[in-house]
Amino acid sequence: MDLIDWPEVTAHDQRAAYYHEVGHSIAAAHFGYAGQIEVKPLMFNSLEQYRTDRAFSGCFTIYGQLDNETQRQIIGMAGILTEKLLTCFELEALDLAYIGDTISEELSPSDSQLIGAIDLCELDEKTVEQCLSILRNNWQQLNSTVEQYLGFTQHKEELQQVLEHIKRLELSHASDSQNTI
Description:
By secondary structure, the chain is mostly helical. The chain contains eight helices and two strands; from the N terminus they run H-E-H-E-H-H-H-H-H-H. The chain has helices spanning 6-30, 47-52, 69-87, 96-106, 109-115, 125-137, 139-151, 153-179; strands spanning 34-41, 56-63. It has a two-stranded antiparallel sheet. Helix 1 crosses helix 7 and helix 3 (69-87) packs across helix 6 (125-137). It is elongated, with a radius of gyration of 18 Å.
């Protein structure tokens, strides 16, 4: 019997994807850049994929050329650090020495490319602290922007589509399980 609360899990995934992408946009705006946020539902072929992967994927497209290395690194790390601040708002750059490997495994290829480092522990502590400071100083705006995105009917419908897809997978899985002897 599957004890996963799919509505809660998928809503969490959608919210985390928006926080991640809005984190990038807040950091970009700090340096005078604009961009576009896109978060899409993922339709996996198995329940197992929903257990291990997020149900939503996001992308922040920045308008303009990022020539400053520090700005590029800050914008690149802002997404994952926003997610970490959700669970521990008191996160400090020094803490990254302890959790850097975990964070680095969670970085998307595009975030890693922007950052230009193998992991966050390789970055200058001042750069990481500056990113954390930008995010904390704009946390209210970040929260309200995420809530605006989540309030759009389209995003509620996308969440419902994922839940309906998971329900079909569960029914198919239950049917397959009953047919085995």
